[in-house]
């Protein structure tokens, strides 16, 4: 009898609460972005997929892929790939403006931003351990849920009296082979260094990118440590 009780206690929720043995170093996470503007009842929905290996992260939307590589010196190198053209533009870490915080790329919200929020509650355990946070900034309220052991954003909602925007996780997978294959596919695209684009204006793809204005602000780094990346994707929609 004692052995059975001992076994039951070993399998108790407490024993597994802190652990998640999923291969979380490799993640494919699908998100839906919903924006509502109160005044004209405008409702838009977009989707993107976050792909992660231990030192690379990519945010893929229907038009292009923003990929970030964490280099050995902790610098971050961005590459922007365009699936339709199977082409890419590579930036040097020195061409990226603004403070670069790897956690904000990897998790969509930085460690610093999470630390600034108020922890409300935790639910679940193991891989499903979910932490809930809130923050009020003037008229805007931010509500966030976070899969702590997977370092994965579950949802974030920013709302003001006139506007709300939510990014919500719809599915996630941890198939290492599939994820590595996706990064390998992009790696095979023909890339051009950002610095060389001016010399290649006869290239129809690059000429088009310059016209669309993709190139100039491509290196601006579209996340910051305050979590402002969630306020709007300026310059991403043309």
UniProtKB/TrEMBL annotation:
Keywords: Signal. Residues 1-17 form the signal peptide. This is Orphan protein secreted protein.
């Amino acid at each position: 009898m004692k052995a059975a009780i001992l076994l039951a206690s070993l399998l108790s929720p407490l024993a597994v609460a802190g652990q998640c043995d999923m291969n979380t170093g490799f993640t494919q996470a699908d998100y839906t972005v919903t924006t509502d503007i109160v005044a004209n009842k405008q409702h838009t929905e977009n989707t993107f997929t976050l792909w992660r290996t231990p030192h690379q992260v990519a945010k893929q939307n229907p038009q292009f892929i923003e990929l970030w590589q964490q280099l050995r010196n902790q610098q971050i190198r961005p590459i922007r790939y365009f699936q339709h053209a199977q082409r890419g533009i590579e930036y040097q870490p020195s061409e990226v403006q603004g403070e670069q915080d790897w956690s904000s790329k990897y998790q969509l919200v930085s460690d610093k931003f999470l630390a600034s929020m108020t922890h409300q509650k935790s639910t679940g355990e193991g891989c499903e351990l979910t932490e809930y946070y809130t923050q009020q900034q003037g008229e805007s309220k931010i509500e966030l849920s976070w899969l702590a052991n997977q370092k994965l954003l579950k949802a974030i909602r920013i709302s003001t009296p006139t506007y709300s925007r939510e990014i919500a996780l719809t599915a996630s997978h941890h198939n290492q082979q599939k994820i590595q294959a996706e990064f390998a596919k992009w790696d095979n695209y023909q890339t051009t260094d950002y610095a060389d684009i001016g010399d290649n204006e006869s290239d129809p793809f690059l000429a088009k990118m310059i016209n669309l204005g993709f190139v100039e602000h491509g290196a601006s780094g579209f996340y910051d440590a305050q979590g402002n990346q969630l306020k709007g994707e300026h310059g991403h929609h043309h």
